Amino acid sequence: MALISDGRFIEDDWRRLADEEALPKSGKVVVSLARLEHALAHLPEGVSLGVNIPNTTDPTSLTRALSRLELVEIAFPAFADGRGFSLARLIRRAGFTGELRASGRLLADQYAHALGCGFNTIEIPDELAERQGESQWQAARAAHARTYQRGYVAPGSILDARRKAAAQ
Amino acid sequence: MTAHDPSLARPNAPTTTYRYDEYDATFVRERVAEFREQVRRRLEGALTEDEFRPFRLMNGLYLQLHAYMLRVAIPYGTLTARQMRRLADIADKYDRGYGHFTTRQNLQYNWPKLVDTPDILESLAEVEMHAIQTSGNCIRNVTADHFSGVAPDEIEDPRATAEFLRQWSSAHPEFSFLPRKFKIAVTGAEHDRAAIMVHDVGLRIVKNDAGEIGYQVVVGGGLGRTPFVGKIIRDYVSRADLLAYLEAIMRVYNRFGRRDNKYKARIKILVHEKGIDEVRAAVEAEFAAMNRSVFSFDPDEFERIAAFFTPPPYESLPAESAKLRTQRVAHPAFGNFVDVNVSPHRVPGYAIVTVSLKPIGGIPGDATSQQMRVLADASERFGFGELRVSHEQNIILPHVKQEDLFDLWKLLDGAHLATANAGLVSDIISCPGLDYCSLATARSIPVAQAISKRFSDLSRQRRIGKLGIKISGCINACGHHHVGAIGILGLEKKGQESYQITLGGDPTFSASIGEILGPGVSAEQVPDVIEHIVDFYLAERLEGEAFIETWRRIGHARFKDVLRREGEDGADI
Ligand code: HEM
Ligand code: SF4
Question: Regarding the domain delimited by B429-571, which CATH topology (the fold level of the hierarchy) does it fall under?
Fold first, then answer.
């Protein structure tokens, strides 16, 4: 898998823990949603915890865990399945400030959408990363520099810009 | 020729519709550049066809039976003369010299080449037009009443709301990958000309008891293979909360709409399966949980947009033109045109003209580039340079002086655009069907043409009165057959085209889905069957009774009976 952060491919320092694998003493690990409860109950000092959740997860079921999580990874079963975008919004609304990651076959063309909904990083299969290099991700992000919506993460809001211009 | 005072005519610079500011212009240019890049990456292999598809669709480009099809948005159906001319130029340069106006205030080109489409989009952007979100699983081109701003029965011009929503829905970060397409229509009048009851969301501008303007919100309407009339989800949403409430609906739909079966993915199915009460509860809970102030509606921005939709500088005229009265009598063909295609205007001395794109035996909704240019000229000479596209696939000139009607009519007549059949049986809505569409199960255009020819006598049509016939070439129902007073659906049975007739559909506030009359008939039989139905209606109707009223009064069985009897008489039905 390849990881995109701020328009660049970066090394992933999170390790995915299989459900039967024991919790390590230190490091950064991602567990499944099924394992989350257990991991939180037995979390060693010095271990950073992340969770991988399906896009159908009820965000209220995570409310208590969020403050102890450093990574929430939302699975995109298909790039055209946009549920993860709404789920990301709801997780941000619940106050999560850690890393929010989209994992699946997302396309560069969806980068601005993902960032807009609160994702920080995108994890994609290597085969896709080979076809869609950094420059494509950067270009796609730049193509949506200004947006009409407010309340989403974007470099510029058209409504705010208009408001500012009108005030001058 | 009595044209408008040149100082009043504002060719290419109308003030009655929205004009892009630098942000809108940049936004559209960025979309064109983005799509140009996507086409390049597709050809280069960075995107597979499956990956490219949603982006191509979001830019209005379909892959059709013979070629690509490009669907251009005409937001809320309003066009300037300059824009209409550009559509004509594109038809000549990149297509075969014509375009097809659709039931959702779009224009379709049937023959563009993939490599040309970025140039076409750029050419559209120059005149403040685009094809953004005319297809794909996103919020589609927002449609509105084609008589907006000029209808006597209007509470408020819905186009300001529609433009506000056009902007809000464009390249939405959260709602661009929905379970299925999402269509919104807005009306601000007492009569629904925008078919809001059969849209995913229908908005009806209303006044509350305090006299404030807000919206009644209808959700879950739709046609297609499982037609539903929408249900009221909220009686009143204040203007300040409109976007928030819509975001709540969209979020509930995005999360819970079905994605396992594309035929069950529209919001109408969610509403049907969960029930309106459960959907309402989910939407209200989301609405209550969201921080409405963050993205909430900005009254100044709404006012900025609304200011574009101000009335043009009308002259003060007598309510009725004496000149028109004489001309109507002196020229009976013109008189008929006025009777049928001209509607009352809210301003004294003016009229709304419907230009029918349904010549007898023609292809419903098609216009040649030459006709588009004539329409552009006509709008400049007689109507402040503004045109509208109706969901009945006709063109509207919304502000014509009554005393100019005769000159306008002559101009239109010279371009075969003066068919006096607006709203009559030959004003047929038809989808492209098997002649163009890869999903079609039967032809629809030739059937429309045959019916139109059968009723070619316009005086007979006037005797019959308003009667909507709508034809689709498959169950996707692009031709709105479910809401046609007479609906015709083309199917395939054992390798043969077979047409199912439905009666009693109604696309207005009193919406109803038509009921199937009986077994399917062959293409050749359709005109006979329609004629029998019409004759029966004529025999049964009470004074002044519309088809739908007769149908509702005397019922399904009697109409069906007629067909059965006709069948016994030898007409093999
Ligand atoms: C020629 C290519 C076309 C294709 C491939 C096509 C495809 C479709 C499909 C698959 C649907 C059903 C979607 C669903 O129910 O979820 C649909 C619905 C619709 N189409 Fe088309 N269409 C075409 C042309 C047109 C044209 C020319 C018009 C206008 C005259 C049109 C207007 C509509 C409308 C209004 C609906 C909405 C019915 C509803 O979903 O409520 N389409 N189209
Ligand atoms: S109703 Fe069917 S045949 Fe007609 S345009 Fe739509 S998809 Fe094609």
Answer: Sulfite Reductase Hemoprotein; domain 1 (3.30.413)
Other CB atoms within a 10 A radius of the CB of residue B258 amount to 16
Distance B132 CA to ligand 1 centre (A): 16
CATH assignment of B143-307, among 3.30.413.10, 3.40.50.1000, 2.40.160.10, 1.10.3720.10: 3.30.413.10
- Check if B370 has its Cβ closer than 6 Å to any atom of ligand 2: no
A164 shares contact with chain B (CB less than 8 Å):
no
pLDDT in tens, A65-104: 999 999 999 999 999 999 999 999 999 999 999 999 999 9
ipTM of the complex: 0.96
- The CATH T-level fold of domain B322-414 is Sulfite Reductase Hemoprotein; domain 2 (3.90.480)
The C-alpha atoms of residue B73 and residue B62 are separated, in whole angstroms, by 14
Find the B474 Cα to ligand 1 centroid distance in Å: 10
* Nearest ligand 1 atom to alpha carbon B365: 30
Say what the pTM is: 0.90
Rounded to whole angstroms, what are the CA distances from B148 to A108, B200, B447, B478? 40, 21, 32, 23
Across the interface, whether the CB atoms of A112 and B259 are under 8 A apart is answered no
Residue B441 to chain A, least CA–CA distance (Å): 28
Identify the pLDDT of residue B4. 35
Distance separating alpha carbons of residues B527 and A133, to the nearest angstrom:
59
Q: DSSP per residue over A62-112, as a string? A: GHHHHTT-SEEEEEESSTT-THHHHHHHHHHHTT--SEEEEEES--GGGHH
Domain spans of chain B, in order of start: 6-74+91-126, 143-307, 322-414, 429-571
- Set of chain A residues whose Cβ sits within 8 Å of the Cβ of B176: 82, 113
Quick check: B25 contacting A, CB < 8 Å?
no
Overall average pLDDT of the B179-196 stretch:
94
Report the residue among B431, B441, B480 best suited for mutation to probe ligand 2: largest number of ligand atoms under 8 A from its CB. Answer: B431
Nearest CA in chain A to B55: A109
In A, residues 113-132, which contact B (CB 8 Å cutoff)? 113-117, 131-132
Ligand 1 centroid distance, CA of B470 (Å): 13
pLDDT digits (tens, 9 = 90+) for B500-531: 999 999 988 888 999 998 889 999 999 999 99
Please give the mean pLDDT across all residues of chain A: 95
Query: Could you tell me which residues are beta bridge partners of residue B139?
Result: B182
Structure tokens at B264: 């069950």
Q: Quick: pLDDT tens for B209-242.
A: 999 999 999 999 999 889 999 999 999 999 999 9
- Residues in A touching B251 (Cβ below 8 Å): 86, 89
Average of per-residue pLDDT across B432-457: 93
Per-residue pLDDT tens digits for B490-501 = 999 888 999 999
